[in-house]
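User: structure tokens for this one?
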Amino acid sequence: MPKPIFKANSNPLLYLNSPPPPPSAHKYQPVAMDNLTDTQSNPITDTQVNNGVGILKDQMACAFKGFTHRLKTHTFNEPHIGLSRMEQGNIIHKALQYFYQDIHTQKALLALDDDKLEGLIQQKILSALNYYDESGFKNIEQIRITQILHQFIAIEKTRNPFTVVSTEEEMHAVVSGLQFTTRLDRLDEMDNGDKVIFDYKTGNPTVSHWCGEAIQEPQLPIYATSKDTQGIAFIQLNADKISIKGLSKDEESLPKQSARNSCKEWDEQIIIWEKILNAASQDFQQGKAQVLPNKIACQYCEYDALCRIKK
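Assistant:
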């Protein structure tokens, strides 16, 4: 008899080299399986959407990532010590919003002496920080933002004359029938009549991401095609670098424009943007959901458990 490996109550449970058990009789038999095509969903019926800018960005990065917006799932912020990156960005946005609600023109900005400028900056930063409890993190953030705003305002003083038309303006956009509501960080009008939309960024934005077969950063191109404007620009605001990066119809409307190395002239680029954005909108509305990510689509994707891409 084969040697038992385990025993319970002196009865062998498992034997080495034991013969396989006889096949069990089962009344059910396997049937042929159908393949399910999961690259195409049903067309949407409600074209009024939330997070429209994010939807088109994800649709162009990976159709499946665009489709996941239909799932209406919610993500949770990871625990953190101090102020999160999102909170830091919101504070800078608020401080600049409050500042340019008082200072509407470059002329008014230039008229401020150093003491008045410093007092106004501190007042607006404190207003933006008012929501947060007193802490060492809050004090450090006040110092950090003070340095950033002083560097940025120094650049503002060197621009061609401008008027701040609006800050945090609500805008309704329609892209090939897809409707959504968003906000413009800031809209300026230049002395030459050009209107330029600005978007504050605390990271490291790249204007070359506007121009290509797929638009990797579609927010400002969507604004440009949805509103009467002659220029768009990122305002980079972080401790490493303060700069304005953009593209405008008139070169004089913005500082040095590196976007001209990768984008077409303004009127031609608007046509290209409209074509690409309309195609992405139609793809989302028709339910295209292929898992074909571009090289950056997976960096901040929350759907690893659903996706079939190996990272």
